[in-house]
Amino acid sequence: MFGGDGGHTVRSGLFKVDGAGNDFLLGIGGWADRLAGDRTLVRRLCDRRRGVGADGTLSVTTRTTNSVSLVYVNADGSEGEFCGNGTRCAARAAVDLLGCNPKLEIVTGWAVIPAEVRGAEVSLVLPPIEAAPQRAGIESPVAVGGVFRLVVGVPHLVARVAGLAELDLEVIAAPLRSHPALGAEGANVNFYEIDGERVTMRTWERGVEAETLSCGSGSVAVALVVMAECGTTRVELRPASGDVLGVEALGEPPLCATRLSGPARIVAEIHPTDNFLAGP
Fold first, then answer.
1. pLDDT digits (tens, 9 = 90+) for 8-23
2. Which fold has domain 134-255?
3. CA dihedral defined by 118, 68, 44, 12, rounded to 10 degrees?
4. Which CATH number is 13-121+265-271 given?
5. How far apart are CA 211 and CA 188, in angstroms?
6. Which residues, given as ranges, of the chain have pLDDT below 70?
7. Residues labelled catalytic
């Protein structure tokens, strides 16, 4: 275990981590600084054919044994204010790699997020969203009941569909992600389907510009829309990875804090070659 406070030295390390199918490269020590400051390197490392491959990078720096700071950068080199699954992975790494306490706070670009690590299960408590889901004024031929917009740290579009598994997200979701009505920043696009007690979902993520196997903040966005639709206060979601993410309302939804829970794991330590780090 690597110490992170009280005079301990944190060695530099680069790790592959996975949060319910979202995969990231996570840096501590010198690698945290490197990932936060070199966007060209981030893009090269995240390249799935010529690099290591990831949806983005996480730079984790110890503040105290109860707190770490997190900088999240998308695979395309753009910085994101918040990433739900990335923040859960950062909490797992803070405990397992930096010696932090299992109950801690993650300082993100959006908010200070309380986290709890229980082995492979990591939970976050997210602050209330500032505005209830609103109709986005955007049409989609696959949406059942309209397209909703809300911000869970970052902007999301949410739409219920039929035949989720058959959707071609590159055709259907990519144009929505950068729809003119959303402004320059665009939004992540989440489609969901309800089958009995199960909510399945798929996400097209900005900054990755592709479908990802899971999206933590997108899961909360979908859950809040489902809560409004069905009058429930807890939703279990199954993203494309097949994992399960739980979202619980900690108050009266949708304008309440939420608890996001699911698996997070450290996959491997990565040692890029000197030739790779030197560039093309």
1. 456 889 999 999 999 9
2. Diaminopimelate Epimerase; Chain A, domain 1 (3.10.310)
3. -90
4. 3.10.310.10
5. 10
6. 1-10
7. 83, 215
